[in-house]
Design a protein that fits this description.
Blueprint (H helix, E strand, L loop, with lengths): L1 H14 L1 H10 L2 E7 L15 H9 L1 E2 L2 E3 L6 H10 L3 H4 L6 E3 L8 E3 L4 H4 L5 H7 L4 E4 L12 E3 L8 H8 L5 H5 L7 H18 L4 E6 L1 H9 L4 H23 L6 E6 L5 E7 L1 H7 L3 E4 L2 E4 L1 E5 L3 E6 L2 H16 L4 E6 L1 H5 L14 E5 L2 E4 L8 E9 L13 E5 L10 E3 L3 H8 L18
Parallel strand pairs: 1-8, 1-9, 3-20, 6-7, 6-8, 10-17
Antiparallel strand pairs: 2-19, 4-5, 9-19, 10-18, 11-12, 13-14, 14-16, 15-16
Helix pairs in contact: 1-2, 8-10, 10-12, 11-12
Length: about 450
């Protein structure tokens, strides 16, 4: 009887726990590492101080450029990278959810919104989880409260989270530093801690899908401009973070089955002139001051190279759309005013789909950026800074795409691709399919 019990137990072990461990050890792994704001044109500089990235390109492939979706800002494009659909489908237009106060005050973008309320599309990590694969994220966006994640180190860390406790136990960071993570700290320090978290996840868990987002490349270009010496310092530091992650997979003895996608959400452009559409709306008496607060039925939400115009009352739109289109089109620094079918051509949702959809979109000329301010001069000149948000056909907005590792052929020419192709390509490597994806998988680069 005891021998029968032992044989049954042994059979269960080999078909169950041990079998699953062996299967896991043979399953593919995909890492998506996003270098926020890294412009594809930086790769054309032979002096770019990124030897690790150069080695990945030599062993794999790099696109000449990857076209982002509109608007060319962080959350919409990170969402497209994991869904394969544009903003007309996932409906993420800002770095959070645009909310409209009933008082008519300025619409506010709220970032800490549950993923299911914000993202209206199936994600890679949900699909992978549904099929029994393990998933993790470090500083990914539009992912708060999402299902389908086994391990997570969010943009705002939870000092009581398991990965956070690992870092505290290993003396990489203190609990107090986690509690005050967003205060008085540099972009480089944030990237260091996020890398420590990603390395911890790889070392202890080695998930099938890891989403990892670094931010210093964006932060320093906003402050000092695109492709400036400060930007190159950020690029060089990002390369050390890539190297640390590669070493983690090497130490976990999983490098030979791991595929890396090094991407960015958008490029970057420099500007020294600003345009303030809300000042125009104040001059048109479409906004006013009430109890010390600005309020109005029309608001402009600035997104760097574009500004989205919201006409709150539907009954006013027929009259105001042509009037404002003409007025803004004549404004210094405005390249074009998009309305009606042109908005759909940009890949934006319609007002019938969601209240996130604008009624007009202003695009800025080169060297100009939009501001949200409601007072002062409409046009101002200042120091050179950096931004994004320009329409996705702008050459400066083109993003980074590098693929290298276990599933990738070497040296396949790609030209320009769409970031809508990334998610279906990753799904294919993992043996999955994103049915709703708008982009075709990059089959030519796969072994």
């Amino acid at each position: 009887m005891m021998r029968k019990i032992f044989l049954v137990f042994a059979a269960l072990c080999f078909s169950g726990t041990i079998g699953r461990a062996q299967t896991t050890a043979s399953q593919p792994i995909v890492v998506v590492l996003s270098l926020d704001g890294f412009p594809s044109r930086a790769l054309k500089d032979p002096r770019l101080p990124m030897p690790t990235l150069r080695k990945l390109i030599a062993d794999g492939v790099a696109a000449d450029a990857m076209t982002p979706v509109n608007p060319t800002v962080t959350w919409p494009n990170h969402t497209s990278l994991v869904t394969g659909v544009d903003a007309a489908h996932h409906q993420v237009l800002f770095n959070g959810l645009l909310t409209f106060p009933s008082s008519g005050a300025e619409p506010l973008v709220k970032p800490w919104i549950n993923k299911d309320e914000l993202v209206h599309a199936k994600t890679l990590y949900e699909l992978a989880s549904d099929h029994g694969l393990t998933t993790a994220q470090v500083d990914w966006v539009a992912i708060y409260g999402a299902r389908g994640l086994n391990w997570s180190f969010p943009e705002r860390p939870d000092p009581d989270g398991p990965i956070e406790r690992d870092l505290v136990d290993e003396k990489f960071v203190t609990r107090e530093e986690l509690e005050n993570f967003g205060e008085d700290s540099s972009p480089a320090w944030h990237d260091q801690v996020w890398t420590d978290a990603a390395v911890d996840i790889v070392k202890r868990h080695t998930p099938n899908l890891l989403l990892f987002h670094l931010l210093a490349t964006d932060s320093l270009q906003h402050r000092y401009g695109a492709l400036t010496p400060a930007a190159y310092e950020a690029y060089a530091y990002a390369d050390t973070r890539i190297a640390a992650l590669l070493q983690a997979f090497r130490d976990a003895k999983a490098l030979d089955r791991t595929t890396f996608f090094i991407v960015s959400d958008h490029g970057f452009a420099s500007f020294s002139h600003t345009v303030s559409p809300n000042v125009v709306l104040m001059q048109d008496h479409l906004m006013h001051v009430e109890n010390g607060q600005y309020a109005g039925d029309v608001w402009a939400k600035a997104e760097g190279g574009t500004a989205m115009i919201y006409i709150r009352k539907p009954e006013q739109r027929a009259e105001l759309i042509p009037k404002l289109t003409s007025e803004f089109a004549a404004l210094e620094g405005v390249e074009h005013v998009y309305e009606g079918k042109e908005l759909e051509a940009l890949g934006l949702p319609t007002s019938d789909q969601t209240d996130q959809a604008p009624q007009l979109v202003l695009s800025a000329k080169s060297g100009y950026s939009f501001l949200a301010q409601t007072q002062g001069n409409v046009i101002q000149n200042g120091a050179i800074r950096g931004t994004h948000g320009y329409v996705n056909t702008n050459p400066d907005m083109q993003a980074l795409f590098v693929a290298s590792g276990a599933a990738i052929r070497q040296g396949v020419p790609l030209g320009t691709i769409s970031n809508l192709q990334v998610a279906p390509t990753i799904a294919m490597i993992l043996g999955l399919k994103l049915d709703a994806a708008q982009g075709e998988p990059l089959k030519s680069i796969l072994k």
